[in-house]
Amino acid sequence: MPLPQKTPEVKSKLSPQQKKVVTILTYIGIALLLLIPTYIAIASYLVGKNAPEESTDTYYTSMELIGPGGNTVTLYPATHETSASEEAKIFDCFRSMLENDIYATGVPEEHTGRYQVVFQTNMGVERYTFHFSTEKSSAYITDANQANWLTEDAAVEYFLNSHYAYELYEQSAPPVLTTAATDVIVPSLLTWSYQTKDGTFADRVALETTEELRTYPIANDIAFYFTRQPSTCHLTIRQNGNVIIEQDSVDGISLAQLTQGTILDFEIEAIYGQSSANKYYGRAVYRFRMNVVEAASFYLGGVSSESAVTHQAAYGNYLMLSCLNVPNEQKLEITATPALKTAPIVFRRGEKVYAAIPADTVGARTLKIKYGTIESTFYLNVTASAATEHTLDADALRGDWEMALDGGKLAELIAAKGANTDSTVGHLLTPTGTFAAPDSSSPVISFADRLTVTGNAAISDREIPFELYHSSNTVLAGAAGRVAERGENDILGKYVIIDHGCGLYSWYCGLSEFDEVRTAVGRPVSKGDIVGRSGKTALGMKDTDGFLLLVTWGKQAIDPAYLRSTPFSIIQ
User: Fold this and answer.
1) Which of 254, 259, 448, 572 is 20 to 30 A from 431, alpha carbon to alpha carbon?
2) DSSP symbols for 467-480
3) Are the C-beta atoms of 92 and 77 separated by less than 8 Å?
4) pLDDT, tens only, 442-490
5) 253 to each of 6, 219, 236, 269, how far by Cα in Å?
6) DSSP characters over 261-292
7) Helix, strand or coil for residue 377?
């Protein structure tokens, strides 16, 4: 029996050296697999690195340039279509100044020309103040954190010699022509060039002109005034198409007495020649009409100009000057010799202008009133007099304001309770807010236009404006302030006086009651707060509920309606 044969042994075809290589490759493969997340991170980095630059950097889309006088222009960066525009070049100037600056400890005094710059960017808003001097080729920059930077980039010089920098140069202001009545004449044609830092001339752009034949008032006082005197000037005046005056000057215009309502056509051509003495040149042509109106006139204490006025100090600290045909009260000039203790308070009520003349200093003085070429003189003598006690029967006088005011009783109350303000520099109204109505109803009786006190020559023609409301509503504060006083007397009844600052008071009188807490003296009051309820306690309110509204400015009453239509914030 044959023996079974053995299966032959299969020997490995890999040598030991080859096995070693396989092992090493296996380990390398495993390592590479473990590093896959790292490969992904590197790839992301490379993609981000090669991304377009604007997706990661700040870029600027527009710039708002606000000049020292508040004039604003919006500029945009260069595009393919606008790369050569002046607007784009100025935009690049300010960007270049920002990019080429060094830290500075402060801003020198001579860099007084300040431009506010607001950049709109893809990252938000950037705000800077650029400080320039027309004598320096440098600028200082203040950022939003009040850090200061100096730039001497060539862009500074480029900007200073551009028309965008006109507000830095005094000679860039074109001439202004005014009439004797202080009206500003708008030119029909105006060109103006001014010298810049490098000695060249830039043109003013966007100057106000009009083709409209505008009409201005004239009152037998034909006179004109230039803020810059022209090199040559030619004047032509026509009436009904016929030339009645033609001369090479606006001075010494001589016309026969003009009739009210006469219409005159004017043409004035002014040439400003270029010379070594001037840093400007240009041409202005004015075409306009003038309508002859009644001249300004003035009355003090009821008497006209060139009169002597005697005033007893007992009848109040102010004497009223009434001004007719004065369209611009800010141009009214009032001087006194010796000087007044405080400046007059000037205000308008409708077509009339009034000035409260301080009359609390005993003695004689001469008052000079001037409006344009119209002048008036008054001779005021303030005499001392003991105050007279007025005994009033409230029941007998209810409903009769003329009797109640006879002898200056209300004027004395205003003089006693009005604010003691120093108005040596006068007062102006600025646009910050208006008074609210104290009641939803309109005043039934309004003496806001005229109330003449009778029966005493010393205070005749003293006009005291007020409003009388007939209602049973709550009474609301016209504006924010602080309670100055509350009380009761035979003229005002129950009253609350609110101090609004700068000598402006509002008086709410004739109340049936007032809130003890809300009207506590010294308590702040907001616009529209309730100060009380109308009643019958004041004179003139015998038969029906109502209240009296007074507004005083210093120690002079003014029209309450004026402060509801005109911003009332008072500055000195």
Assistant:
1) 448
2) EEE---SEEE-SS-
3) yes
4) 554 443 333 333 333 333 344 567 777 767 788 888 888 889 999 988 7
5) 149, 13, 11, 16
6) T-EEEEEEEEEE---TT-SEEEEEEEEEEEEE
7) strand
